[in-house]
Amino acid sequence: MSNVRNDKPFTVAGRTFQSRLLVGTGKYKDMEETRLAIEASGAEIVTVAVRRTNLGQNPGEPNLLDVLPPDRYTILPNTAGCYDAIEAVRTCRLARELLDGHNLVKLEVLADQKTLFPNVIETLKAAETLVKDGFDVMVYTSDDPIIARQLAEIGCCAVMPLAGLIGTGLGICNPYNLQIILEESKVPVLVDAGVGTASDATIAMELGCEAVLMNSAIAHAQQPVLMAEAMKHAILAGRMAYLAGRMPKKLYASASSPLDGLIK
Q1: How confident is the model at residue 98 (pLDDT cuts 50, 70, 90)?
Q2: Does the annotation mark 264 as catalytic?
C-alpha cells in the first residue's frame, strides 16, 4: 500500500508502516485462503490469537508462520479468549517466548462470551503489569474516553476502542465517543471490532483514526480475498479524505457555479 501524498507513515511503538490496515488471521476456511486474503489486504501487521493458533508450540501441526512469515509480516500476538488479567499476562509472556523476545502485543481481556465486550477493570490491571514487564501494548478497550485516557497514561502504545461488538459488523455505532478519544489521545487510536464493510473502514479513517484492525469483515465475506482488497482501498480513501478536509455541511443547497456574469 503506497503512501498518501504529504502524509506521515503510521507509527506505533517506534516502528513505521506503510499500511494503515491491520488484519486478523482467524475464521478463514483454510491456511491458503488466509494467505491470499492477507496478501490482498496489503496489511503489514497481522494479529494472531496465541491461545487458538499454532505458532510453533504444537510440533507436527500446521504452523501459521509458515504461510505468514515474520520476515514479511509484523506478527501481533493477541490475548483473545482471556477473561482476566492473570490469563492475559501469561499469554503475552508465552507469545514473547514463541516469537524470540517479541514485545509488541495486542491486549484484550473480555467480560463474557456473549458480547465479547472488554472487561476494562481487568484490562487496566493487565496493561499496567505488561507495560512494567517491557511489553509494547496495543489495547482493545471500550469507547469510554476516560478509560482510553487511563490506558494511555499507563503507557500503552496505542488504544483500540471498539466501533461495535466483535464480529457483529454493525459499523461505527458511536462516532461521538470516538471523536472525543481522538481529540484527547496522545497515542495512536485505532478502531478495533465492529467493521462490516468497506464504508465502515472509510468512516473510521475519516474521523481521524490512525488505522483500523479487522478480521470478521474480511473472513466472513462471501469472497474474502475480494473484500480484503476492497478494505485496502477503503482505508486509503478514508485517510485521503481526512487529510483533504471535507466541505462543511449545509441545510440548504448552494450553487456549484457562481451566479455573477450569467448570460440573460
Answers
A1: confident
A2: no
